[in-house]
Automatic annotation (TrEMBL):
Pfam families: Aa_trans (PF01490). The chain crosses the membrane at residues 21-46, 52-76, 111-132, 152-168, 180-202, 269-290, 310-334, 372-392, 398-418, 430-455. One of its GO terms (cellular component) is plasma membrane. Its main location: membrane. The keyword Metal-binding does not apply. It comes from Helianthus annuus. Keywords: Amino-acid transport, Cell membrane, Membrane, Symport, Transmembrane, Transmembrane helix, Transport. GO terms for biological process: amino acid transmembrane transport. One of its GO terms (molecular function) is symporter activity. Residues 20-455 form the Amino acid transporter transmembrane domain. Belongs to the amino acid/polyamine transporter 2 family. Amino acid/auxin permease (AAAP) (TC 2.A.18.2) subfamily. This is Amino acid transporter, transmembrane domain-containing protein.
């Protein structure tokens, strides 16, 4: 029987609950996952690389990400991409096509990366919340006021919101949150673009220093700093495209007809092309506005004064977007761990029992005590780690470097070679391997630069000091 024939009103082709995702919801998930806090660091990244290498790196990463996402989309069902057996997670895809130790390697790479991203989003959201408080303080107390503020209370607030949202049972129920987050991402990116254009026009083009090669050795940085910053900038750009981690899980929300792989390819094209346009505009216009002095978070570089309400709104949009993006990235981790525990302890009532709770204006809500305890504990742990290491640029660069090669490049290429039975040393095999090795080198240098940046940040860091 064709896998896409309707088999029941509420039952899918594999006996599970019927999926309701569409091209629009999948595109929203992708945009929510891709246009994240990475967009905020792109002006800084372009400043390190310059007018030539900066935009070229953005375009290269976007092309590679889209190309490998199409390879991964075809692997969602096995062995046939249209009527084969569904693979619900990235690990399932690797298991079905590669097997062996690569399944464990994929799991480590994917879930460590998901943890890192949720920590990074906690840091970024708190920075935006602090920016709102500072902006209002300067507006009411005057520009000379001492408006120092700690990010820790805002990390706690962010974690509290995530504890509540984490009780959403599964990824398929997150479409409304992704839609809202996607709108927020467009809003703050557009505000950043508008402010950048206004600053360039007001500055007359001669106030800031830009160059073809970025920050200048001997003027802005030392030769050693230039190298480290270049490496870290590549990591930041890699982080900006880090959505392959959840690509299979997003595809698993799509309705079984039309074929998921075809819809997912369209969603990837829409998501990646839309975000690339925003990235190039935000990165290049941000660099034009601030020059070689571009800040790590380009929205905070416009100061906290006027128009204070617009900057406030942009930072609120960032916080709301990251609230949704956090869930997009942590839900696959939640599902994986809970599934493992259910298989390990199938007779445990604490793990398996669903209690019915009547919620006003909502109806019946199924609450699971294990889900409540484990997800709450996870959110608290990520918030604590974010408090210990609140370093924006270096942290994003390290996450990007760690996830880009294995999840965006290596596994999709290896899966395609295995599925298509590409012969060793054939032309296709050779150029795919060259692409894979080049991306490995890029990820390694980005990781080295980001680790060096983290070490530098740790030396300067004074815990619990107000910024």
């Amino acid at each position: 029987m064709d896998a896409h024939l309707q088999v029941g009103k509420n039952i899918d082709d594999d006996g599970r609950e019927k999926r309701t995702g569409t091209l629009v919801t999948a595109s929203a998930h992708i945009i929510t996952a891709v246009i994240g806090s990475g967009v905020l660091s792109l002006a800084w990244a372009i400043a390190q690389l310059g007018w030539v290498a900066g935009p070229a790196a953005l375009m290269a990463f976007s092309f590679i990400t889209y190309f490998t996402s199409t390879l991964l989309a075809d692997a969602y069902r096995s062995p046939d991409p249209v009527s084969g057996k569904r693979n619900y997670t990235y690990m399932d895809v690797v298991r079905a096509n590669l097997g062996g130790n690569k399944v464990q390697l994929c799991g480590i790479a994917q879930y460590v990366n998901l943890v890192g991203i949720t920590i990074g989003y906690t840091i970024t959201a708190s920075i935006s919340m602090v920016a709102v408080k500072k902006s209002n303080c300067f507006h009411s107390e005057g520009h000379a006021a001492s408006c120092k503020s700690s990010s820790y209370p805002y990390m706690i607030i962010f974690a509290g919101i995530q504890i509540i949202l984490s009780q959403i049972p599964n990824f398929d129920k997150l479409s409304w949150l992704s839609m809202l987050a996607a709108v927020m991402s467009f809003a703050y990116s557009s505000i950043g673009l508008g402010l950048s254009i206004a600053k360039v026009v007001a500055g007359g083009g001669g106030v800031v220093r830009t160059s073809l090669t970025g920050v200048q050795v001997g003027v802005d940085v030392s030769g050693q700093e230039k190298v480290w910053r270049t490496f870290q900038a590549i990591g930041d750009i890699a982080f900006a495209y880090a959505y392959s981690t959840v690509l299979v899980e997003i595809q698993d929300t799509l309705k079984s007809y039309p074929p998921e792989n075809k819809v997912m390819k369209k969603a990837s094209l829409a998501g990646v092309s839309t975000t690339t346009v925003f990235y190039v505009l935000c990165g290049c216009l941000g660099y034009a506005a601030f020059g070689n002095d571009a800040p790590g978070n380009f929205l905070t570089g416009f100061g906290f004064y006027e128009p204070f309400w617009l900057i406030d709104f942009a930072n609120v949009c960032i916080a709301i977007h990251l609230i949704g993006a956090y869930q997009v990235f942590c839900q696959p981790l939640f599902s994986f761990f809970e599934m493992k525990c259910k298989r390990r302890w199938p007779n445990s009532k604490f793990i398996t029992t669903e209690h019915i709770l009547n919620v006003p204006f909502y109806g019946e809500y199924y609450i699971n005590m294990f889900r409540l305890v484990w997800r709450t504990t996870y959110v608290i742990l990520t918030a604590v780690i974010a408090m210990i290491f609140p370093f924006f640029n270096s942290f994003l660069g390290l996450i990007g470097a760690g996830s880009f090669y294995p999840l965006t490049v290596y596994f999709p290429i290896e899966i395609y070679i295995a599925r298509a039975k590409i012969q060793r040393f054939s032309v296709t095999w050779v150029w795919l391997k060259i692409l894979s090795w080049v991306c490995l080198v890029i990820s390694l240098v980005a990781a080295i630069g980001s680790v060096q940046g983290l070490l530098t940040d740790v030396k300067k860091y004074k815990p619990f000091e107000m910024d």
